[in-house]
């Protein structure tokens, strides 16, 4: 199939919540090397609060992403709450009127996510941030779609680019956030935001592919 029903895709949000809960300790371990060490704790807190809000509810993909975005924006401290709040809110708005989600709609979702974050963050690709995962993922998906590839293959290429982008942060020097004060000492460690973004993008990509 070349699309899936918005109404059937609330499960994508369920899988995002489960992924972040499972990766809580790893995310904090990564963050502890050049940051505060609380990234996994904060992300788990926000995603678990969203899980409680969704409990017993029926929701499509757009509705689930909207609730997740609002929860992260309101309930996570630091810089990551607004960034991920914006990411999920933009993805939600891009598909809220879509009964069927195909490659064109998904391209709007991930493009909106990138543009939303760029509107509120000065970070650029290469600064050692979540954009080092997100931007290559978006570019790979859009390029595959424009090359005429099937939706599932576009998702595969997005996931592969997300992993490559995430891994690239290990060799980067942080130019934004608390880690930027470490200068060269921030090299050799994966970025925590790029890591959580990798788990988020690949979970979305894999879950979406399973719905096709």
- Radius of gyration using CA atoms only: 16 Å
Helix content: 55-70%
Q: What is the average per-residue confidence, as pLDDT, rounded to a whole number?
A: 97
- Low-pLDDT runs: none
CATH homologous superfamily assignment: DhaL domain
Which term fits the overall shape?
A: globular
Specify the biggest β-sheet.
2 strands, antiparallel
Number of helices: 9
What does this structure look like?
This protein is an all-alpha fold and 212 residues long. It has one domain: Alpha Horseshoe (Serine Threonine Protein Phosphatase 5, Tetratricopeptide repeat). It is built from 9 helices and 2 strands. The protein has a two-stranded antiparallel ribbon. α1 runs parallel beside α4.
List key phrases describing it.
212 residues; mainly alpha; Serine Threonine Protein Phosphatase 5, Tetratricopeptide repeat; two-stranded antiparallel sheet; globular
Summary, kept brief:
The chain has 212 residues and is mainly α.
What topology does this entry show?
Layout: E1 3-5, H1 10-22, H2 24-34, H3 39-54, H4 61-75, H5 80-95, E2 100-102, H6 103-120, H7 131-146, H8 151-168, H9 192-211
Helix pairs in contact: 1-3, 1-4, 1-9, 2-3, 2-9, 3-4, 4-5, 5-6, 6-7, 7-8, 7-9, 8-9
């Amino acid at each position: 199939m070349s699309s899936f029903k918005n109404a059937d895709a609330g499960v994508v949000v369920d899988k995002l919540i489960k992924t972040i809960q499972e990766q809580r300790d790893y995310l904090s371990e990564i963050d502890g090397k050049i940051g505060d060490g609380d990234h996994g704790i904060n992300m788990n807190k926000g995603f678990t609060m969203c899980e409680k809000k969704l409990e017993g509810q029926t929701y499509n993909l757009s509705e689930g992403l909207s609730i997740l975005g609002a929860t992260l924006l309101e309930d996570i401290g630091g810089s990551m709450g607004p960034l991920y709040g914006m990411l999920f809110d933009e993805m939600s708005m891009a598909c809220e009127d879509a009964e069927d989600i195909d490659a064109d709609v998904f391209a709007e979702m991930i493009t909106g996510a990138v543009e939303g974050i760029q509107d509120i963050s000065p970070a650029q690709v290469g600064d050692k941030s979540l954009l080092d995962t997100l931007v290559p993922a978006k570019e790979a998906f859009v390029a595959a779609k424009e090359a005429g590839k099937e939706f599932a293959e576009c998702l595969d290429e997005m996931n592969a680019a997300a992993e490559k982008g995430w891994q690239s942060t290990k060799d980067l020097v942080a130019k934004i956030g608390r880690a930027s004060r470490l200068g060269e000492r921030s090299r050799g460690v994966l970025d925590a935001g790029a890591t959580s973004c990798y788990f988020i993008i690949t979970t979305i990509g894999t879950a979406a592919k399973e719905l096709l």
